Amino acid sequence: MLLNIITVTKDDIDGVSATLRSTRALRQSEEVRQIIVDSSADGEKVRQIAQGERNVSYIWQQPAGISAAFNAGLGTADAEWVWFLNGGDEVHPDVAPASLNYLLKQSKADAMIFEIEHLRARKRVSHPQLWNVWPPVLSWIPHPATLLRQRLFTRYGLFDENLGTSMDYELWFRFFSEDVVVDMLSIPLALYDETGRSSTDMGGVGREAMKVIRKNLPMVLRKLVGRGVSVCRAYRSYRRLGK
Question: I want to staple 159 with a disulfide (CB 3.0 to 4.6 A). Which of 167, 195, 211, 220 is the partner?
Fold first, then answer.
C-alpha cells in the first residue's frame, strides 16, 4: 500500500461527503486507501456513506479529541505514506493522481510539505522564505498538505493526546528536529476548510501553542546556537582559503 488518507470527522455529513468526493480519483488505485475516523452522534449515516465508496475503511470511536482520532487512524494504517485530510478539507482539483503517485514512489524524503488553498476564500498560502523555515515557530506547516512516511510515527511517537488544535504544531517540532529529510513543494495539494476550530478558536490555539514553544524552547535554543557555531566555522574556513 502506497498511501493512507486519514480523515477525522464529527457530526459533519456534508464535510466528510465533500472530502470523500474529492479523493475518489486517487482511490481508483488499489495503492490508496482512505480511513474515516468518525465520532458522530449518528455514526451510521457516515458509515453508510463510507461503505458506498471504493477503498474506504470506517472506524467509529467515542469522542476523545482530534489527536486521539488521528492516532486511531494510524493504528489501522498500512501504507508507506499517510496524509491527514480532515472532513471538510478537500484534495485540490489540480492534483493529478498519477503525478502524486509518482512523487510518492520516487521521493527519498521522509516528509513532503505542499501548500494549501483556503476552500472558501480561494486564497493560496505560500511557504515562508527559506531562512525562516526552521524552527517552525510561526506554525507554517499545513497538516492537510503534508505527507509523512508512517515509519516516522514508529520512530518518534504519535500525536500528543493532551493537545487539540496544536497537536500537529508539536509534532513538527518533535519530528523535524530529528534526522528527517523533508521535501518542500510550492504546489497546492489541499483545499483547507477555514471554518474549523483551528481557525475560529484563536484563544485556544494561542494557549496551546505557547505550551508547545515552552516545551521545545531548550531544543530550539540549542539549534540556534549550533547554527551560529556553523556560521563561525564556515567564516574561519573561508578566511583561511582566502589567504
Answer: 167
